[in-house]
Amino acid sequence: MQSTRAPYDAIIVGVGTSGGFLAKSLTEAGVRCLAVEAGRHFNRGTYPTKEVDANALLYWGGGIELNHDASIGLLRARVVGGGSIVNQALMDRFDDDALDSWRDTSGVDFFSTAAMAPWYEKAEASICLQEIPAEYRNRNAEIFRAGFEDNGYEWAPLRRAQRDCRFADGNDCIACLWGCRIDSKQSTNVTMVPKALAAGLDLVPQFEADTVRETADGVEVTGKHADGRQETFSARRLILASGAIGNTKLLLRSGFGERLPALGHNFYSHPQYMELGLYSEPVDAHRGPMQSLKSADAGFRRSGFKLENVYAPPAAIAMLVPGFGRAHQRHMRRLSHFACIEVCVRDTHPGHIRMGRKGAFTIEKSLDAEDRARRDRGLAAIHNIFLSTGAKEIISGSIAISLHLMGGCNMGVDPKRSVVSPEFRVHGTRHIYSADSSTFPNAPGINPALTIMALSLRAAEQILAEART
Ligand SMILES: Cc1cc2nc3c(=O)[nH]c(=O)nc-3n(C[C@H](O)[C@H](O)[C@H](O)COP(=O)(O)OP(=O)(O)OC[C@H]3O[C@@H](n4cnc5c(N)ncnc54)[C@H](O)[C@@H]3O)c2cc1C
Predict the structure, then answer these.
(1) How high is the pLDDT of residue 75?
(2) For the CA of 78, the nearest atom of ligand 1
(3) Best exposed site among 9, 245, 390, 397 by fewest CB in 10 Å?
(4) Residue 65 CA from chain centroid, whole number
């Protein structure tokens, strides 16, 4: 059904990290925007409080989606705020290595640390960034630090998008993986969406866009509300902000595959492998700030991996630890005695998001020999850390997890090898834009969120300049 609402200046599909920044920038500049989001709109008082509810209510696929051979679990948020609601909010700029590689692959000039610096500054100025004070580090972090020092690896405090996590009150940050109930985490639901709404944004949650179409003077977005009602919205411009898998699916389903040969290719995901070290004394890795240190080792970077000092709630650990019956129960009984480190692989072997003849999607993603070697070098470093700090046993996670889903609509100058132009416009279209994780040309090996914010701010300026002409 055609919507009875008057056409908008712009429709934003997906209100995650990118969608939140674009919605705020455009509405505050006077653009009449509609933002549609497949997920629900929670706030600090309504976020789910139980892990299994959170998986079902905040994620696509009821908590997890799988690649073609079920060797990688892909975590993709489905909620107003997108990944910024469920993520760990670690914020890093990309280094020369990442941006030079993007420039070489894409031919896009502004992929350099110098050209990106003003956009990073703008993104950083719009959120609150903090390091975790040393006195609040938990035992998991202390094992990580001691193991790094024993083995001569470089570590550093990490920078998190948070305002006041109230560690002095005994707050355990692991629960903020289901949405921060004290509005400390700087999700776009806290930082951007309220400002966009105040400036006049129309937000329609629980609306899943199915297809998009360019018309003579604009765009149309057709999709379904949660109650099954279909509606078509129209606008002058369309901004795709539904993430690597969301945007790629939407464009493939809308028939763009034939004119954009690169669509669905160049999918990267930083596969992560979680290792648990068992200690005699309780580690209580779930206590306090869940993550406060990061690996900052130049040798690790050259070797294509980084280590993350993280933990996960019980159902996630139950899925990751191997074994069945008593063997599995034995692991779960020792939950509080585990320290946890994961290796995050900077993957070089791209995956492919593919639509089958009957409209079903497959995510073909695997590790080639180079990526497996990167993983194995990281695992060896983790084992060194656990062994030097007195772990009694090391338990390896049974599958990889991917949290950083990137590409599928990669940016580049060549329409035969990329999907989005350096002006953030889908090649061959006049009115369809994207600046989110789908546009990444390859895997940076660094947390992506800050760069998505920076690119979205740059895209907003580009769209506003075009709207004025
Ligand atoms: C558990 C976890 C921890 C993470 N930790 C970090 C971290 O510490 N640091 C970091 O930098 N990154 C982290 N990330 C990754 C980071 O959150 C994402 O890279 C980032 O949010 C992606 O931004 P985006 O705008 O591209 O997409 P998203 O933020 O995923 O937003 C896309 C939105 O579009 C919606 N959508 C999709 N399809 C449709 C459709 N058809 N119709 C309507 N809406 C649709 C989705 O529901 C979603 O809300 C983490 C991710 C996870 C899952």
Answers:
(1) 97
(2) 47
(3) 390
(4) 14
Residue 204 CA: distances (Å) to CA of 192, 197, 207, 393: 16, 11, 6, 50
Close Cβ partners of 380 (under 8 Å, ≥ 6 residues apart):
none
Contact between residue 15 and residue 23 where contact means Cβ atoms under 8 Å apart: yes
What is the Cα–Cα distance from 243 to 257, expressed in whole angstroms?
Answer: 17
Which of 11, 12, 15, 17 is the pocket-test mutation for ligand 1 (most atoms within 8 Å of CB)? 17
> Mean pLDDT score of the chain, rounded to an integer?
97
Altogether, the residues listed in the chain come to a count of: 469
> Looking at this protein, which amino acid is placed at residue 7?
P
All residues at 6 or more sequence positions from 142 whose CB lies less than 8 Å from its CB, including other chains: none
CA 146 to chain centroid, in Å, comes to: 29
Token look-up 């919507």 returns 3
Compute CA distances 378 → 29, 284, 313, 386, whole Å.
46, 24, 23, 13
Per DSSP bridges, beta strands 72-74 and 202-204 are unpaired
User: How many alpha carbons fall within 13 Å on the CB side of residue 5?
Assistant: 19
Question: What is the distance in A from the centroid of ligand 1 to the CA of 243?
Answer: 6
pLDDT above 70 coverage of the chain, percent: 100
CA geometry: angle 98, 99, 103, nearest 5 deg: 125
Residue 138 CA to residue 437 CA, distance in Å, equals 32
Can you read off the two tokens belonging to residue 75?
A: 């975590």
